[in-house]
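Q: Convert this sequence to structure tokens.
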Amino acid sequence: MNTWAFAFISILIFLSYGCSTTVETPEQTDLIEHKEDIGNYELDEGILTGYSVLEPENHKDPEEFAFPSTSIVGTQDGVSISIDKFDIENKSTWGKVVNLSVTILNQGKTALSPSLVIYVFLEGEDITENTRKFDMDIIGLDDHANYIFKDAISFSGTGEKIFRIALYEGYHTKTFLVSVETKIQI
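A:
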């Protein structure tokens, strides 16, 4: 076998067995949990890059799916987003939303290539000051996915703030789909 053929075969073997298929981008950070049928595990070694999709066992049967009773849910044109749970870290003059659990249910017309934008702002304040954007994996029609964000967003100031999560279609051409919000106190 000549040297070029050996090098080519070696590269193919390396690519087949030695490379990760995870693509990490700066917008997709700080998730702590990944759940599959084999069980749960947590990753807590510093700041994590990438994100994981939690796939409940019934994720292909939306008629059996139900948001937790404590979730805050918004629905528009068959697409739903929920804030399932979150914690607030109070840093006296600023705060953080941590351990945020968000579920997206797609019963719309097509598969989604969603972007999720998290906002924390005072009523009347510039909404773009405290925002964070995440591009998510494609969610098929009649499918749902749950995301856990370890450090969802930091924000400045104290008092009552509006905590909003908006879902947009497309990574580059943003079309608003649905949002959900609640008030938080810091």
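The longest strand covers residues 143-156.
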